[in-house]
TrEMBL record:
Domain Glycosyl hydrolase family 13 catalytic: 70-386
Listed GO biological process terms: carbohydrate metabolic process
Names of the cofactor(s): Ca(2+)
Protein name per the record: Alpha-amylase
InterPro entries: A-amylase_thermo (IPR013776), Alpha-amylase_C_pro (IPR015237), Alpha_amylase (IPR006046), GH (IPR017853), GH13_cat_dom (IPR006047), Glyco_hydro_b (IPR013780)
Cytoplasm keyword on record: no
PROSITE patterns named in the record: PROKAR_LIPOPROTEIN
One Pfam family here: Alpha-amylase
Active-site positions on this chain: D259 (nucleophile), E283 (proton donor)
Family to which the UniProt record says this protein belongs: Belongs to the glycosyl hydrolase 13 family.
EC annotation from Swiss-Prot or TrEMBL: 3.2.1.1
Source species: Flavobacterium resistens
Gene Ontology molecular-function annotations: alpha-amylase activity; calcium ion binding
Primary enzyme class: hydrolase
Length: 479
């Protein structure tokens, strides 16, 4: 009696196992079919070239732009330590930043401002005082001396890092009071006593004046520079010893971050770029993509992608990753979009690592904030994302899937580089999803190390990948 019973149990076990396998296959098929229902969104349509800052090589001749383009470091934050130490602080870090793959640094306004040693530089008085004249209560700026700034720029260039100057040309501060016939009052517009003696100004060079009552915008009640005035144009971007060309040719800055560009016409930046050259990006604080794109085209400049910033904030912190399907500057014009997660003015995004995984795998020119990198977040994880950006984030972009919790996008590769697939998971549990790659019968891996899977894509290029809770995984060919 025992042998027939054992045979029956064995047959039952085999039958159950086969049924189980059949059910699992059905689940896998259903899961793939479910993913196939999502209509892939081909976001960008161009030849796949990466963002370019305009220069392919450094002064040392060693550097060629990475396959994925560059990464910028905002090398300051609001109210960095005073005492003239900041230029030396940044100098001490450029070697490590260069080794991590940072291609450029953006410095705060470098010239003497109204509050002297205590100013962050956004209230400029003398554009040619870099901490070498005793005025406004100090010789050095908040950040240090001219010699220390020159040493910093030299050190950065030795590491193949470009250096961008924050340039404030909308308004000035720190002038003396004078009678102003255009206003009928006294105004703080007399800059004839500046110590450098270069680019002296009076009421005639500020609105309201003989050129009009105002331009596009004023800031904080400061005297508003009149760019329509030929004298102002000449000193800012035309003459060989003027502000722009002195910064570029003597101080050796490689480009510009233009402050508060809502305050003056886009033609100003266009004229600066045409006469001075160098990379440029404008701070146009607006979430409207049309406004950003129009300004960038008219200014012939890059622009910070505030549309992307606010969409990331809503998507990651509002728990709706489908919002990442919406329009952003990098989608509209990837070669003129500078993306960011935080800057010295705004710090709203809570899920920062998810946001960095987004901008460092997508198109545009990603910026890393100093405090995020050096103090607040995991530097090893950011370095990993920088490496992935530089080496894998190539080509046009396609969105493969999105819902409240999950977002999957594909960079389609360029010039022999295979690109990548990024999977972002905003839920509290591991997620798995079938997605379509550009690779058939190819083993892939997660270059973040967050997943230990080494799946092989099917003949139809589909594959199942996974992503950790409140995390991301980034997949490419295992080579």
């Amino acid at each position: 009696m025992k042998k027939p019973q054992a045979k029956f149990l064995f047959v039952s076990m085999i039958t159950a196992l086969l049924c189980s396998c059949s059910q699992n296959d059905s689940v896998e098929t259903d899961s793939k079919a479910e993913s196939q229902k999502f209509e892939i969104i081909n976001v960008t349509h161009h030849d796949g070239k990466p963002f370019s800052t305009g220069s392919k090589s450094s002064l040392t001749g060693k550097y060629v732009d990475n396959p994925g383009g560059g990464v910028m470091m905002q090398a300051f934050y609001w109210d960095v330590p005073s005492g003239g130490t900041w230029w030396n602080t940044v100098s001490s870090k450029v070697t490590a930043w260069g080794n991590a793959g940072i291609g450029s640094i953006w410095l705060p306004p470098a010239s003497k401002a109204q509050n002297g040693a205590f100013s962050m530089g956004y209230d400029p008085t003398d554009y040619f005082d870099f901490g070498d004249y005793n005025q406004n209560g100090s010789t050095e700026t908040r950040f240090g001396s001219k010699t220390e700034l020159v040493n910093l720029i030299t050190a950065a260039h030795a590491e193949n890092i470009k250096v961008y100057a924050d340039i404030v040309i909308n308004h000035n501060s720190g002038g003396q009071s004078e009678a102003n016939p255009f206003t009928g009052t006294n105004t703080w517009t007399n800059f004839n006593g500046i110590s450098s003696g270069k680019f002296k100004r009076t009421y005639a060079n500020f609105y309201k004046n003989s050129f009009g009552n105002n331009d596009e915008g004023s800031f904080g009640g400061f005297p508003d520079l009149c760019h329509a005035d030929p004298y102002v144009k000449d000193w800012l971007w035309i003459r060989a010893d003027g502000v722009g060309k002195y910064y570029k040719n003597t101080m050796k800055f490689d480009g510009w971050r233009f402050d508060y560009v809502k305050g003056f016409g886009a033609w100003v930046v266009n004229a600066w770029n045409a006469n001075v050259g160098g990379f440029s990006v404008g701070e146009l604080w607006d979430s409207n993509v049309n406004i950003l794109n129009d300004w960038a085209n008219n200014a012939n400049s890059s622009v910070f992608d505030f549309a992307c910033y606010y969409k990331m904030n809503d998507a990651f912190d509002g728990n709706n990753l489908a919002l990442l399907n919406d329009d952003m500057m990098w989608k509209r014009n990837p070669y003129k979009a500078v993306t960011f997660v935080t800057n010295h003015d705004t710090d709203e995004i809570w899920s920062k690592m998810l946001a960095y995984s987004y901008i460092l795998t997508h198109e545009g020119y990603p910026t890393i904030f100093y405090r995020d990198y050096e103090e607040w977040l995991d530097k090893n994880k950011l370095n990993n994302l920088i490496w992935i950006h530089n080496n894998k984030a190539t080509g046009t972009t396609s969105i493969l899937y999105s819902d409240n919790d999950e977002y999957v996008a594909r960079r389609n590769g360029y010039n022999g580089n295979p690109g990548l697939v990024v999977y972002i998971n905003n839920s509290d549990v591991w997620q798995e999803r079938w997605i379509q790659t550009n690779w058939a019968n190819t083993q892939i891996k997660d270059f973040t190390g967050n997943s230990t899977w080494y799946p092989t894509t099917q003949a139809d290029k589909w594959v199942k990948i996974q992503c950790p809770p409140k995390g991301y995984s980034i997949w490419s060919i295992n080579q």
